[in-house]
Amino acid sequence: MDRKEEQIRQLAHKLWLEEGKPEGRAQEHWHRAQKLIESEEVAAKASVPAAVETTKETKKPARGRKKVDGLPQTVPGRKQNAQSDQKKP
């Protein structure tokens, strides 16, 4: 028995127990369990691409600077002033 079939069997048994162990409804419990597991698999597959896209959009800011609200900011503890950008004679 493969893993998926085992999951279906266990869930069908759980459904059967929850309904008070009715006789003659094994096939109904099996099909309900099968549909529930398949819908969980579809939901799980649908959520994966969104997570992947989020990580692709994340970009590392330029070294020595942080981006806050899209604007580069200086890193705390690093001195920067207008004179340091000019060449000394």
Question: In angstroms, what is the radius of gyration?
Answer: 29 Å
Instruction: Give me the secondary-structure category.
Output: mainly alpha
Strand order within the widest beta sheet: 1-2
What share of residues is helical?
Answer: 55-70%
Structural shape: elongated
Order of helices and strands: HHEEH
Tags for this model:
89 residues, mainly alpha, 3 helices, 58% helix
Account of the 3D structure:
This protein has 89 residues and is mainly alpha-helical. The chain has three helices and two strands. A two-stranded antiparallel ribbon has the order 1-2. A hairpin with a 2-residue loop joins strand 1 and strand 2 (71-74).
In brief:
This protein is mainly alpha-helical and 89 residues long. 58% of the residues lie in helices and 9% in strands.
List the helices and strands and how they pair.
Elements: H1 3-18, H2 26-57, E1 65-68, E2 71-74, H3 82-85
Antiparallel strand pairs: 1-2
Helix pairs in contact: 1-2
